Predict the structure of Molybdate-binding protein ModA.
Amino acid sequence: MCTGALLAAGVVAAGLAACVNSTPDIAPSASTDGRKAAASSVTVYAAASLKSPFTEIASKFEAANPGTKVTLNFAGSSALVSQITQGAPADVFASADSRNMDELSAAGLIDGTPTNFATNVLTIAVSSADPASISSFADLAKPGIKVVVCAPQVPCGSATRKVEKAAGTTLMPVSEESSVADVLGKVTSGEADAGLVYVTDVKTAGDRVKGITFRESDQAVNTYPIAAMGSSKNKELANAFIAMVTGSAGKRVLGDAGFGAL
């Protein structure tokens, strides 16, 4: 009871009312802080080829939403799907193709309908010196050329199979990597003469590599979808991040990185 308990009954009643009215100011503040903490972070799982633009978009999102933290996880799209289906706490998933997004959708793990937001095509990445003198897709099949590609289950690997078919050329890669970033790494480290990567990866790599375009690449245009996860505890924040990616700010960043617009 409050200190005025020995005063007249009317004063006591008033004092008690004051005590009762003061208690809600304490408990909700802790609960509100908890809700804020939960809603002030969003975890984004994105294809490896999106690392550069999504890192920039995440910074813009945090600046536009003070106190918000964006956690980014980049890997091959198929690897990310495996992580998510096994319970990884993703709020947003951005894939380098529709096939992997469709897998999550079929499993009932997507909230709503995915939104397509960008396109990408393959190019040949060689070292700046290009000691193997590669100038066409057909050159990749020549004896002695060490070429690296993505594994078939990865979007860039699926695109590789399509351009092989379009070109009528079968490659004999020295390795198949789990992400386009790993393919680029083999080229920049000198372990491979050439690698099939996205045009955006060559742009991001700067003067470490040069890209060689080939006409068959337009037979394998990858479309990138993005969606919120059904299990997300931060759907409002997840949808806000998606809105930035698909809005004018995101389109500018993606365009600067070399992605095609939709």
